[in-house]
Amino acid sequence: MGISRCRFHSTVVPGEIREALKGAVDLILPYKCAVCGSVSDTEDRFGGYDELYRSLYGGESGLHICGKCLSHIGLQDQTRRWFLCLSNPVENDPCPGLALYMPFPYQGTVGKCIPKIKFSKKTELARFFGCLLGSSLCGEDIKADIVVPVPLSAERLEERGFNQASEIAYPVAKLCGIPFVEDCLIRTRDTGRQTDMKDSFRRADNIKDAFAVSDKWDVTGLTVMAVDDVSTTGATLHETAKALYKAGASKVLCVALAGNRTVKNAETF
Asked: Of 51, 224, 245, 246, which sits with the fewest C-beta atoms within 10 Å of its C-beta?
């Protein structure tokens, strides 16, 4: 004797069916690591992160990573996270001594992830590292009035579909309890890719005067945290700071997720 349609729907709701099927599929087809493509084996370790992700974005985290890649995420020692923004300081700098906070070296899993974020649209990785960066900043008890991401050019934004700096900066702002202002900074012109230029002087010239503060916002007297994904020579963040100071900001802290610096700044922000 078959089960009646009415009895079936009264005992198992569609949502339960979907969850059962999802569980069965997960057993057959395990999640793949977003970094290396191997089988992801760390889902149970991200209970707190999944909860945080849902509170920020809703839905499931979608982050899957293997233990090997996870073990290669190296946070710098607390004394080696501060740098001068410019790797090569210049004379007559309008904002000398500008501080850069950069807690991850551009190597290991971080070094693999950043290109995937930019060129493979792995926004879940950007958000994950944004949470790690935000936790690190909170641990330093750093204060600011607003958090602003370094903007992409209109051409690059259309090409990529998202701004990786925004994806990183948003959880930073939320975790630190600081307002996130995505459209505070604007690009005044398209620039060449900084990664295509190895010389620090060419990088500085390429990005010079490429930013401004939007007419929508008044940053007079504010402490601003400017966030980017990577800092190499520091030219991009330095130019954003110049634009913010020109618009009246009282203090600017430059923050990058990662870089390849080895010389630290002796004083913190």
From this structure: 51
What is the chain's length?
269
On whether residue 29 sits in a domain, the answer given is yes
- Residue ranges making up the domain that contains 253: 78-259
Residues 84 and 192 in one domain: yes
Q: Could you give the number of structural domains in the chain?
A: 2
Here the tokens at position 62 are: 């979608």
Cα(173)–Cα(6) distance, integer angstroms: 50
Q: Which residues pair with 185 in a beta bridge?
A: 213
Q: Percent helix, strand, coil in the chain (nearest 5)?
A: 45, 15, 40
**Domain containing 123 — which CATH number?**
3.40.50
Distances (CA, A) of 260 to 22, 56, 76, 136, 257: 41, 30, 11, 18, 11
Query: Among residues 71, 95, 115, which one ends one of the domains?
Result: 71
CA nearest neighbour of 128 among 33, 223, 26: 33
